[in-house]
UniProtKB/TrEMBL annotation:
<feature type="domain" description="HTH luxR-type">
    <location>
        <begin position="149"/>
        <end position="214"/>
    </location>
</feature>
<keyword id="KW-0597">Phosphoprotein</keyword>
<protein>
    <submittedName>
        <fullName>Response regulator transcription factor</fullName>
    </submittedName>
</protein>
<dbReference type="InterPro" id="IPR016032">
    <property type="entry name" value="Sig_transdc_resp-reg_C-effctor"/>
</dbReference>
<dbReference type="InterPro" id="IPR000792">
    <property type="entry name" value="Tscrpt_reg_LuxR_C"/>
</dbReference>
<dbReference type="Pfam" id="PF00072">
    <property type="entry name" value="Response_reg"/>
</dbReference>
<dbReference type="InterPro" id="IPR039420">
    <property type="entry name" value="WalR-like"/>
</dbReference>
<dbReference type="InterPro" id="IPR001789">
    <property type="entry name" value="Sig_transdc_resp-reg_receiver"/>
</dbReference>
<keyword id="KW-0804">Transcription</keyword>
<dbReference type="InterPro" id="IPR011006">
    <property type="entry name" value="CheY-like_superfamily"/>
</dbReference>
<feature type="domain" description="Response regulatory">
    <location>
        <begin position="3"/>
        <end position="119"/>
    </location>
</feature>
<keyword id="KW-0805">Transcription regulation</keyword>
<dbReference type="InterPro" id="IPR058245">
    <property type="entry name" value="NreC/VraR/RcsB-like_REC"/>
</dbReference>
<keyword id="KW-0238">DNA-binding</keyword>
<dbReference type="Pfam" id="PF00196">
    <property type="entry name" value="GerE"/>
</dbReference>
<feature type="modified residue" description="4-aspartylphosphate">
    <location>
        <position position="54"/>
    </location>
</feature>
Length: 217
């Protein structure tokens, strides 16, 4: 059972998300929070697998809460709830260790996929907004960022670079394994090794690094 904490300062949004998640047999909403400070306290004291976290909230905003969650509950996966207008904040959240993001107006099936992916330790980038994020990543400072990324990738083996390229495409462990004829468990081992070598906190950071380096593109 995937235990979820829903964090948003609007009760109606929390209620809607709870209703969607409660329709799944493998997901349980165990708590709600109206601001980042409440979310951090709940995650610190209770067993939570995935936190759905709004960015714009009173008392403590989502980006500050994300950093605190990384400190007090490092095993918790955080999915950012966002809108198109918060693109730059999304970039900061991904760099800060978020497992990904999902748009608030996403279809129920997409929200369920996002939670399941995060719980499995995989990245989830909402298809409806990924293009906008990528456009931001490739604008301004691209050459310097690309050069830094390529230098970091020099420590990887050819096989590790191949797996990283698939992460950059957003593939799950299972899909990546099918692509390169490798078991899902073996891909998971490679991913752990890649994260350690690149000093990335999660798959999202590694995927962004792969894109910066132009790997697989």
């Amino acid at each position: 059972m995937i235990r979820v904490l829903v964090t948003d300062d609007e009760p109606l949004i929390r209620a809607g998300i709870r209703m969607i998640l409660s329709s799944a047999e493998d997901i349980e909403v165990v708590a709600e929070a109206g601001n980042g400070r409440e979310a951090v306290e709940v995650a610190r004291t209770r067993h939570i697998d995935v936190v759905l976290l709004d960015i714009q909230m009173p008392v403590m905003d989502g980006l500050t809460a994300l950093a605190e969650l990384g400190r007090v509950a490092p095993r918790v996966q955080v999915l950012i709830l966002t809108t198109f207008g918060e693109r730059q904040n999304v970039l900061r959240a991904l760099s800060g260790g978020s497992a990904g993001f999902v748009l608030k107006d996403s279809a129920p099936a997409e929200l369920l996929r996002a939670v399941r992916a995060a719980a499995a330790g995989e990245a989830y980038l909402s298809p409806g907004a990924t293009r906008h994020v990528v456009d931001s990543l490739v604008s301004g400072g691209t050459a310097r960022r690309g050069e830094r990324a390529r230098r970091r990738l020099e420590k990887l083996t050819d096989r590790e670079r191949e797996v990283l390229a698939l992460l950059g495409e957003g593939l799950s462990n299972a899909d990546a394994g099918r692509r390169i004829h490798m078991s899902e468990a073996t891909v998971k081992t490679y991913v752990s090794r890649i994260l350690a070598k690149l000093e990335c906190e999660n798959r999202v950071q590694a995927a962004l690094l792969a894109r910066d380096a132009g790997l697989g593109m």
